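User: Hi! I have a protein structure encoded as tokens and I'd like to know what sequence might fold into it. I'm fairly new to this, so please keep things simple.
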């Protein structure tokens, strides 16, 4: 068995597509009526589509999982993030762990938690 994709629920699929392209360089592989597969295996699914399948409340900022990205020049990434998305909500601003890795955590446009860290 092989893990194929990670799916996150989004309110506005076009805005989310732009967000993930602007910050992480992800491009559309497939756009299929409320489901959009991006490079690296990230799937954006329209909240209305997900709601029909799940029939449960969708809880933004649930902090139960995160998308993790690595970036060598994390300071330049943070500068780009703040220039392009100045209202971004941080969980942890840029910090350095005791083992030397620099990381930052923030929410995407829909409250999905993202961590960006330097390679270990």
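Assistant: Happy to help. Inverse folding works backwards from shape to sequence: for each of the 120 positions I chose a residue that suits the local structure. Here it is:
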């Amino acid at each position: 068995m092989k893990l194929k994709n990670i799916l996150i629920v989004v309110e506005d699929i076009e805005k989310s597509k732009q967000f993930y392209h602007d910050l992480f360089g992800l491009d559309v592989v497939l756009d299929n009526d409320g489901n959009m597969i991006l490079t690296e295996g990230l799937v954006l699914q329209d909240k209305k589509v997900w709601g029909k399948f799940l029939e449960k409340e969708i809880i933004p900022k649930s902090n139960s999982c995160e998308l993790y990205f690595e970036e060598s020049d994390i300071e330049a990434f943070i500068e780009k993030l703040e220039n392009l998305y100045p209202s971004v909500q941080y969980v942890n601003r840029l910090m350095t762990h005791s083992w030397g890795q620099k990381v930052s955590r923030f929410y995407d446009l829909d409250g999905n938690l993202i961590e960006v860290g330097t390679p270990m």
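A useful reference point when you look it over: Residues 13-24 form the longest helix (12 residues). Feel free to ask if any position seems puzzling.
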